[in-house]
Design brief:
alpha+beta; Glycosyltransferase; 3 domains; seven-stranded antiparallel sheet; 15 helices; about 35% helix
Length: about 625
């Protein structure tokens, strides 16, 4: 893979209209303030006082007290990153005041040597870096660093960046293979990709080298976590019932270059692989990039839900065996899909291939967006593909509130994931109504997605500009038409992108329209949960049926093998959307005996499907993505 592209940063891309502007503004005006109140109410903010009396927790059962989570600092840091991204888009004095107040608290809590972790400093001050396996110190540091980079880029202030750099400098001093240094790494990968963001922001190669060290050292024998446990006199057997190697959970079972299958905790795997691509690109390490590509294939070919979710099991919040994709028990954590989105985005910069951008789009519009309610104040941690009516959104998952602020930071910074630039030109990956500035040229993109396939790109330039525009043709698109200044063009895509090389003049207009047929999806036989079932999609959206529209007992519905569904606009439903309606059969016979010789009777009915992201926003009820089908 030859890295020839770079993301166009949010400072040069502004989302101006449409579907994602509504979501971005909802997050900016409502979600962020709701999350701040929850963080303050649960204790994450007061925890920075480093006072046990203010470090609130909860009773769990009769004999155990949750004395402030080991990863609370990361939740606060993700909120800071989301809020900072919002400040880059629009002035908001109230939000900026909240951000500045937290930064002051962080400055006060930081130790003279740069160390900063509210849990350790409050409850285990003598245990710094003594349990990297479990205590998430470097994970929390990573999210602090990411927040600091975004805050600096958004506001120009260096207050939070200075805090993060002091901590990062301490890590540089403490970790590595040199004399007196620790050759350990965090049980939860995150610091690796954060250090790469800090390296790109500052140009300080020490951060690059530390990230590289963490990646190279992880999983090496003898395993650092074994030595660490001995040194802290921890004789407990670690994860004795964990399938395979117990260290697979934290991606430390073997060195990354030796891995052929993605295993363990899904979020940890995606964060690590994102950093693997980052480091591989910068140091031109073909082995790292080949590893990333190999493991990407394993995820996409054997472990990906139709909705873009990954990680099927709650036991390890991650992967099991190939094709193990249950629906009702699907874990599909919101954070895991965000990690997949980040991983795909990094691979996309190494070569233009619509498989990467298609998967990003799939995850974004479906599993990720499912993680937040239409009210902006309720959330899913896990995102099943079927429910009997017992899975509900909640205002805040206090036990592990990682997903809500993670989702908020992605939506707030979404403009930075839409386009890339390089020596070959400009690439448009995601069709979102936005304005993007480049040297000598400006693009204004208007899109009807996700409900309509019409897209237009208008060119603004003072002087003629000779360059290539690479436009993605989504894998879901039906017939595609392309016009430049009203003149039809041939659409010949290379790896899913059509490349338009010409001299562009001010006022030039590109029209790119995708037919959006309703498609039926069928899983390969190996996916046991989906045998004899079908699902519906249109454009980037996966659809589901809900009890609110179709009544109870959804598994009574049977779809023909070639079901005829058509789109219906519903501007007054669930914030406005396009529904799918079509004919199906419903079993009506209910046998009194356990077994019978009579074929169940059926009646024709009209079935209504809504986009998966919008489910569970009305009265509690059943939901299904995969429906029974006839031959």
């Amino acid at each position: 893979m030859d890295a020839s592209w770079s993301p166009v940063p949010p400072s040069r891309v502004t989302i101006v209209d449409g579907f994602w502007k509504r979501w971005r503004d909802l997050v900016g005006t409502k979600t962020l303030f709701h999350q701040f109140q929850e963080l303050r109410g649960e204790g994450q903010i007061d925890a920075l006082a480093l006072d046990q009396k203010m470090h609130r927790g909860r009773a769990v059962g009769d004999d155990w007290y949750w004395g402030g989570s080991i990863f609370w600092d990361s939740d606060l840091a993700k909120w800071l990153e989301a809020a900072s991204a919002r400040l880059q888009q629009t002035k908001d004095p109230e939000l900026e005041k909240l951000v500045d107040d937290i930064i002051v608290r962080l400055e006060r809590a930081q130790q003279p040597d740069g160390y900063l972790n509210s849990h350790i400093l409050t409850w285990r001050p003598r245990h710094r870096f003594k349990n990297l396996r479990d205590l998430h110190e470097l994970y929390c540091a990573g999210h602090l660093i990411e927040a600091a980079v975004v805050h600096h880029e958004a506001t120009g202030k260096d207050t939070l960046l200075s805090v993060a750099r002091r901590y990062a400098d301490l890590l540089v001093e403490r970790f590595g293979n040199g004399p007196g240094k620790m050759n350990g790494y965090c049980g939860h990968p995150e610091i690796e990709l954060a250090l790469m963001r800090l390296y790109r922001s500052t140009g300080d190669t020490r951060y690059l080298e530390l990230s590289r060290f963490f990646i190279d050292e992880r999983g090496a024998a003898p395993n650092y976590f074994d030595r660490e446990a001995v040194e802290r006199l921890d004789r407990r057997e670690f994860r004795p019932n964990h399938p395979g190697s117990p260290y697979a959970y934290m991606q430390a079972h073997e060195p990354i270059r030796q891995q052929t299958k993605v295993v363990g905790h899904a979020v940890r795997a995606m964060y690590l692989l994102s950093a693997v691509v980052d480091v591989g690109v910068v140091i031109k390490d073909a082995s790292l990039l080949e590893t990333a590509g190999r493991l990407w294939r394993d995820v996409i070919d054997t472990k990906l839900y139709l909705t873009g979710g990954i990680g099927s099991a709650s036991e390890n919040e991650g992967f099991t065996r190939d094709y193990d994709l249950p629906n009702e028990k699907a874990y599909a954590e919101t954070c895991a899909s965000i990690g997949l989105f980040l991983f795909g985005h990094r691979l996309l910069q190494t070569r233009l291939d619509s498989e990467f951008s298609d998967v990003m789009e799939l995850a974004l519009y479906n599993c990720i967006l499912s993680g937040i309610g239409l009210d902006g104040e309720s959330f899913f941690y896990d995102n099943p593909l079927a429910s009997r009516g017992t899975h509900h959104r909640i205002p805040w998952p206090w036990w592990c509130p990682c997903c809500p602020p993670n989702l908020a930071r992605l939506i707030s910074s979404l403009s930075g994931y839409l386009l890339s630039e390089g020596l070959e030109g400009i690439a448009v990956h995601q069709y979102v109504s936005c304005e993007a500035a480049f040297p000598g040229i400006r693009l204004t993109i208007k899109s009807g997605l996700p409900f309509a396939g019409h897209n237009a790109i208008e060119i603004t330039t003072e002087d003629p500009s000779d360059r290539t525009l690479a436009l993605r043709i989504p894998g879901w698109a039906g017939q595609t038409t392309l016009k430049i200044n009203g003149q039809s063009q041939n659409v010949e895509a290379q790896n899913g992108y059509v490349h338009l090389r010409r001299v562009w003049n001010n006022g030039d207009k590109i029209e790119l329209n995708f037919e959006m047929p309703v498609r039926q999806k069928f899983a390969r036989f190996d996916v046991e949960a989906d045998r004899g079932r079908t699902a519906l999609s249109r454009g980037p959206l996966v659809y589901c049926i809900e009890q609110a529209d179709n009544g109870p007992d959804l598994d009574h519905f049977v779809l023909p093998g070639q079901a005829d569904f058509h789109p219906v606009e519903a501007n007054d439903l669930l914030g406005g959307m396009t529904l799918l309606k079509g004919n199906a059969l419903r079993e009506t016979t209910s046998a009194e005996k356990l077994y019978t010789e009579h074929v169940p009777e059926t009646e024709p009915v009209e079935l209504c499907a809504i986009p998966y992201y919008a489910w569970a926003n009305r009265a509690p009820g059943e939901m299904q993505v995969w429906m029974r089908r006839s031959a």
